[in-house]
Structures are given as structure tokens and as C-alpha cells.
Here is the input.
Amino acid sequence: MVADFCSQWLAARGFEVHSLEKRPGRPALVAMARGTGGGRSLMLNGHLDTVSLAGYDCDPLEPQIPGGRMYGRGTFDMTSGVAATMVAAARAAR
Here is the structure.
């Protein structure tokens, strides 16, 4: 599961990670890097869920780039944004 990977990745970089699962199979993660100076806090937020496979005119698991636009599952979600947020948070925490 993607949330497990994210949790392990963040924990390995010193984050305090909490998993909240209000609905079974749909965990939410909260990862904190506590500061020491009493300064301001920064929250970065994203989501890991993806769109369904229904409604595509072609195979949604095979990316297509007609006319310079990419179509397929994952092209409209935040997976890459969450990855970038995790890297940015880890660098900021160092």
C-alpha cells in the first residue's frame, strides 16, 4: 500500500508518523518533524487516492499522449505532488 511506503520513508528520515484510519482501507498519515526553537509551523498536505479505471476511452493503465496531452490513470492525481512534498519536508527538517 502506498501509505505504508510513505510512512516507512518518512519514519526513516526522523519523522514522527501517525496513521489514522477512520474508514477501513483508507488510511491518512500525519508526519511531524518537531522543531526546537518555538518558531512558526509549516503544514504540507496532499492525498494518495487515485481516480477509478472507469470512463477512459483507452486502456487507463497505458499512458497516451495525443496532441501533447497525457491521458491515463495517475495523470490527474497527486502522487507526484505527495512525493515532492515528502522530499521537501525531509530537506526542510534537516
Notes: The two ends are 27 Å apart (CA to CA).
